[in-house]
Design a protein that fits this description.
about 80% helix, mainly alpha
């Protein structure tokens, strides 16, 4: 693959992490006027439909056997997003929440080891205690306790780790764009069903809230996944995996700019340790980047 193509792909994937970070801001603003589960369900359902329109040529010849697998993963994704959006609704610090959610990266191979009997690289067992130490510092930042939001973000990280394992185990011939679209629509339908039984819809929605909803749906979800699919097709998996670790960094940066958020020393150290754990867990991919082929 040409160097220019690599650079183009990596710039695209960096822009994907920027959009993901902005998605936290868009979503937090939209939650000022929308119930969390309804917001997330409608967002994913619409975004999935947009992806169907964008990649409709890839939907021909789908086998029901493969679709069922995608539906199962979509339900697990819905559970993860229920944790995430509930945490976001209650969060006082989005940057901290983003780093806790990103623990899913470290937990993926741990779940694979104990649920599916995989054999993760040794770097995972180095990353795990570093991540736990990071969580400890975050607890100290709140007087040896966690906010409810942080526990919800941790729940989302655990569920995301399960989802990623299911994606790898339920191998499918479905194009990645089609798989993403199905997951989004199934998760959206699941969240809307939860909302129907647990939430009350507002009588009216302001133009500002509607704008944030559209931004989170079309920019932070549909456009993000379209660019991610394209970017990952142009670069090795090792490069993409490392670049995608930037999401919590951008989230913390944008939250500081938009909401004037600041971290305590303990929170800063905790987030730094979690980020270090993420990099350690990706050591095989990082080494592959700098190893001549």
């Amino acid at each position: 693959m040409k160097q220019g193509t690599h650079l183009k792909a990596e710039l695209i994937l960096v822009s994907v992490t920027v959009l993901a970070g902005l998605g936290w801001i868009f979503s937090k603003e939209a939650l000022a006027g929308l119930p969390p589960l309804f917001f997330m369900g409608a967002r994913f359902l619409i975004a999935g439909f947009v992806l169907v329109l964008a990649g409709r040529r890839f939907f021909s010849g789908l086998a029901w056997h493969d679709v069922k697998k995608a539906i199962l993963v979509g339900v697990v994704m819905g559970v993860a997003m229920a944790f995430w959006i509930s945490g976001l609704d209650k969060a006082s610090n989005l940057g901290v929440g983003a780093f806790i959610t990103s623990l899913g990266v470290v937990l993926v191979p741990v779940f694979g080891r104990f649920i599916f009997k995989d054999h993760p690289p040794k770097s995972i067992w180095v990353a795990l205690p570093v991540a736990i130490l990071g969580l400890g510092f975050l607890a100290l930042g709140n007087g040896v306790s966690y906010e409810v939001a942080q526990l919800l973000f941790l729940g989302s990280a655990l569920t995301f780790a399960l989802q990623f394992n299911l994606l790898s185990k339920l191998s499918t011939r479905i194009h990645v764009l089609v798989l993403t679209a199905i997951q989004l629509m199934v998760a959206g339908a699941f969240l809307l069903a939860l909302s129907l039984f647990t939430e009350s819809l507002p009588v009216s929605v302001s133009i500002g809230v509607a704008g944030w909803f559209l931004a989170s749906t079309l920019i932070a979800t549909s456009l993000r996944f379209l660019l991610q699919t394209y970017g990952q097709s142009l670069t090795p998996t090792s490069h993409a995996a490392v670049i995608m670790n930037l999401e919590p960094v951008w989230t913390a940066f944008f939250a500081a700019l938009w909401f004037s958020e600041a971290m305590s020393l303990f929170q800063f150290v905790g987030c730094g340790l979690i980020f270090l754990a993420m990099l350690i867990s990706r050591w095989t991919q990082i080494r592959a980047i700098f190893t001549p082929s």
